[in-house]
Amino acid sequence: MLKVQNDIVLELKNVKTYFYLDEGVLKAVDGVDLKLRKEKVLGIVGESGCGKSVTSQAILRIVPAPGKVTGEILLHKQKGKSNSAPIDLVKLDPFGQEIRSIRGGDIAMIFQEPMKAFSPIHTIGNQIMEALLLHAIDKPKEAREMAIESLKRVGISNPERRIDDYPHQLSGGMRQRAMIAMALSCNPSILIADEPTTALDVTVQAQVVQLILDLKNEFKSAVIYITHDLGIIAEIADEVAVMYLGKIVEYADVDTLFHGALHPYTKALLSSIPTISKTNVSDLTTIKGTVPYPMNLPSGCGFYSRCERVKVGLCDVEAQLQLNELKPGHFVRCPVAEKEYFGEA
Amino acid sequence: MEKKNDILLEVNSIKKYFPVQAGFFRKTVGYIKAVDDVSFYIKSGETLGIVGESGCGKTTLGRCIIRAIEPSGGEIKFRTENGKFINLMELDGKNLRPIRKDMQMIFQDPYSSLNPRMIVLDIIAEPLVCHNIAKGGAKKEIVIDLMKKTGLDSRYLERYPHAFSGGQRQRIGIARALATNPKLIVCDEPVSALDVSVQAQILNLLKELQSSLNLTYLFISHDLGVIRYVSHRVGVMYAGKLVELANCDNLFYAPKHPYTEALLSAKPNPNPRIKAQKIILKGEVVNLANLPSGCYLSPRCKYSQDVCRALSPELREIKPEHFVACHFAHELKLQGMPELTSQEVFSK
Fold first, then answer.
1. B165/A291 Cα distance (integer angstroms)
2. How confident is the model at residue A283 (pLDDT cuts 50, 70, 90)?
3. Helical (H) or strand (E) element with A25
4. What is the dihedral of CA A305, A310, A314, A318, to 10 degrees?
5. Which of A42, A66, A301, B241 has the most Cβ atoms closer than 10 angstroms to its Cβ?
């Protein structure tokens, strides 16, 4: 029991991020529970607007202005005293000293668009050194050497020269590598990758995904990998959470999710991607309608209007829609699937 | 010669070179060869998929064919209604106009391809007005019919594009492309800005329309999965050149070009039980302004030999209907997609 406790590095309990706007309350993240284990990759997958990016922003407390984070985000610090009590990131001041030492130090993030995430007026070397000087090292000279070392590790050729380049001088793949070098320079225990390969071409994407996996093994860090691409999830993740309208609808290990999905949304999502290995290419199922706007939603299941298996009296009752563990490690938020699962078993 | 009869479009060594200008007098110092000597044909009612990474010239190719940008050279032969082949390159603007009716385009970005200040009725009807096809009540009837065909509610006739979601906007774009009853539609990444669940709706709509209206598509995409789903034959482009052209099954299960092999292997497969050996290409897509000598893939290709760096390979037919531009197309044993039974793909 104690062992199970120990390998959890980050725990989200009922995390909510609401944006209080003039038009009403936008529930971007609406009660998310997640556990991130040491040296594992947790994939978060969903369509645009499902709250996957806001979840990652909530962890680092960088949710933009009218957004408010509630719930508990427990960080089990790996550095220093390992037996110390977990820190609740929600209780920290988002502009305070403590969260600033955690950002980059314990939890690092890779963003989708490296061109926007890097400052265009500083060299990449300066930006990597900034992180190092804030968290790890005092002497700029040492920091520069370490920055060169980290660029070398992510496979940038000629790092001694590249370190003085500005972001616009690098290609897209190179920039993303430099971003990874910056994120990993302080040896964080958790790496959050928010769609890191979406802006890249497939052949470069394959290189970057492989790099993240290699570095994860080398640094023994845990990774939260956020993407809309189920293909990448299948390759990289150990556990997967499928999000829809701010809620986790299914949460399981990767094999169970791809070969034994129970939630209608996950099933529909899996069968609506055109893949190159499908032999029968004529049956691409579709989900009717589009993702509703996450404001002033009616009560009940968010997938209600698009689901083909809706049962009145079950799906529109809020109390029925809990994320329940149907079998060890497989959580599903769907009363219909639950009834069926236990009916068959 | 029966085969010739059902060819709708034939493109012979089409080229598009963009001049690179420098200095005070904007002197031309070189050329970017965006599309370099590409030839293919499309039969009536079929879909030719063009796949490649960003910057490989696939969009430029699509635009050259409908002469939205002027090609630098080559021939574009299109079969007109009376069955005659016409070389579009020889026509001037006035003579090209009636043929434009038969070729339409669907764009990638459903947000920027619709004028925000026009209502749906006017957007869809614009080709009808341009080509003097219909006016007034007749025009409105045609538009309502097009909206029905593309799965839009005709009550939205008077709305502006901002009131629609991405998928619905793409349907408006498709309705507009269908307005003139075209034979050929160039689809330039029509689903890459959409979410997967909506993407499937649009792909199915395009396939339905193809069979009901006997449309011919040139379908441009970077997503191999999408290409596999819609295409009959597929062309793979790299650095402005066509490197492989074959029918779908041959290309996916028995690729003959190392670049095709790498693309197939790099595509993430949504099945965690397939742990195939990844073939990862070194480096990045070549810079078109600074091309390597010989085969453009040679600096990244693991099979490359001296001859690859010296000589540029021609696109040649190695089997009937299977064209490859590689010196070692016959010798190399390349890995295609693993063949799976449907139970293995998704055991439900």
1. 9
2. low
3. strand A24-37
4. -20
5. A301
Smallest Cβ–Cβ distance between B53 and the set A201, A279, A280 belongs to: A201
Structure-token pair, residue A15: 């995390």
Restricting to B residues 108-167, those with a Cβ less than 8 Å away from any Cβ of A are 165-167
Calpha distance A65→A193 (Å, rounded): 22
Interface of B with A in 253-272 (CB under 8 A): 262-272
DSSP annotation string for B164-216: S-HHHHHHHHHHHHHTT--SEEEEESTTTTS-HHHHHHHHHHHHHHHHHHT-E
The total of other beta-carbon atoms located within 10 Å of residue B206's CB is 23
> What is the amino acid identity at position A327?
K
Q: Model confidence over B13-51: pLDDT tens digits?
A: 999 999 988 888 888 888 888 999 999 999 999 999 999
Could you tell me how many residues make up chain B? 348
What structural domains and CATH numbers belong to chain A?
A: 1-38+45-93+226-275+283-345 (3.40.50.300)
Phi, psi for residue A37 in degrees, rounded to 5:
-100, 155
CB atoms within 10 A of CB A279: 13
User: 3-class SS at A8?
Assistant: strand
Instruction: Report pTM.
Output: 0.85
* Min Cα separation A5/chain B (Å): 27
Whether A308 and chain B come into contact, CB under 8 Å, resolves to no
CA distances from A37 to A75, A101, A312 (A): 11, 21, 38
Total number of residues shown for chain A: 345
**A31 class by beta-carbon count within 10 Å (0-12 exposed, 13-18 middle, 19+ buried):** middle
Nearest to A202 among B53, B342, B347 (CB): B53
pLDDT > 90 in chain A, percent = 38
- Return the number of other C-beta atoms located less than 10 Å from residue A297's C-beta: 17
